[in-house]
Amino acid sequence: MSLTQRFRTSLALLTDMYQLTMAQGYWKKGMADQEAVFHLYFRKNPFKGGYTLCAGLEDAIDLLQNFGFTEEDVAYLGSLKGSQGQVLFEEGFLQHLRELQFTCDVEAIPEGTAVFPNEPLLRIKGPILQCQLLETPLLTILNFQTLVATKAARVVDAAQGDTVIEFGMRRAQGPDGAISAARAAFIGGVKATSNMLAGKLFAIPVKGTHAHSWVMSFERESEAFSAYGDVFPHDSVFLVDTYNTLEGVKKAIAVASKMRAQGGELRGIRLDSGDLAYLSIEARKLLDAAGFEKVAILGSNDLDEHLIQSLKQQGAKIDTWGIGTKLVTAYDQPALGGVYKLAALKKDDQDWEYKLKLSEQLVKISTPGILQVRRFYRNNSPIGDMIFSEPQQVQAPATMVHPNDPTQRKTFQDDCTFEDLLVPVFQKGKLTYTSPSLLEIQERAARQVALLHETYRRFLNPHIYKVGLEAQLHEKKMALIVKFREEGASHKD
Ligand SMILES: Nc1ncnc2c1ncn2[C@@H]1O[C@H](COP(=O)(O)OP(=O)(O)OP(=O)(O)O)[C@@H](O)[C@H]1O
Ligand SMILES: O=P(O)(O)OC[C@H]1O[C@H](OP(=O)(O)OP(=O)(O)O)[C@H](O)[C@@H]1O
Ligand SMILES: O=C(O)c1cccnc1
Q: pTM for this one?
């Protein structure tokens, strides 16, 4: 189900107020239809990682396809007053909004692609008023889903092929956070969610065990297990740690034997506290000795990729991982920090004027142009990404320059294959892209992560994947920086 259907309202006002005040400014100053190019990108891989998995495009597409102000939206805007009690948004502008239709060109990197700092995930070209209004909603969609998809990919990588289930709704950033996180976590590789609404909306498989309250609501732990086994003779996973974990495992085994005698079969047990390495090893021994080799051991309790890795190193016998809080809240880095920057403005019908935002730090200076990302491969392995401006032809051998350290360069010879990552999504406001299914996106993500050499995937000090600016683009950017710095220093307009 699409984003607008989920919210059941027009999303035209899902933006910051300043986008609307600027929009009125563009309209008033006759600039509303001036063609602009903006790029959405981030500056640092999250979680101190070596890669990022992009996600959220399908929701972004839905937002753009349904872009438009309803009478209710316009009435709300018309009711707003400025600091002197005057009408904030004037009637002519409101009429402009009523008639506004999405007419931009959009290119984007497909969901489930491995991406790196400074690369535009999305490029939008069209009337500046439209591009401006869309800054905030595009960022809120792509930033969060990209962040959670990346976290999920790391967790799934640490689990080394074990099943990972997303258990996070109760700790998510509100209901909408929980829903988007479930979608993004699935893209990152989790096999199922406990979130029933996400299951229904996105056809994500749903899975679950039972809570401590189930055990506590019976006189005895074994009664609770028996009762649950009666109700779900083939689909029970018993939570065994309410009182004493290993005693709980023994009771689970006794009940599982009775279930088996009656034609049922216990699916698994869940450990949710204590030393998960020790307890899972001991539980595995007890289960195997009783002939329950196939009963799974599910581990949960504030887990993340680092704990899973550590538990694996300790020989934990956990084969299914339930991951909640740390996954859906992206606990150790709760925001991606993606930005959306103006990169070019059409001066007249012919020429683009390149734009950039200056900063004291080179890393924060945006890149001007109409950007595309070319990924080079050798023997099917990605070896570097070159950001170039599309009006500029790139031919091998092609040299790129490190975006933050111009002394570092890399040249790709013509023995490399390449692909351009940004693909057309909208042309003049018309959708030209067919979104893959969520499962196809998940499969793409798994292939993309697998293509990355393990040095980029390790958690501690990963190798830095090379991303650079095509040499001519770099020169142009440097020349603009010098020009703008000089103008700034002499206070010229
Ligand atoms: N063998 C282990 N090595 C490293 N960390 C572990 C190991 N076993 C469990 N942990 C993690 O240690 C943390 C322990 O959590 P905590 O201190 O809250 O104890 P607890 O077992 O959950 O206690 P409680 O009974 O109160 O729930 C959890 O994040 C858990 O995943
Ligand atoms: O630990 P997470 O990765 O967030 O996974 C979800 C947690 O939610 C449940 O706990 P509950 O809400 O009962 O709280 P608890 O942590 O005290 O068991 C469940 O037993 C997991 O421990
Ligand atoms: O099904 C479970 O075991 C579950 C679901 C949500 C949160 N914690 C556990």
A: 0.97
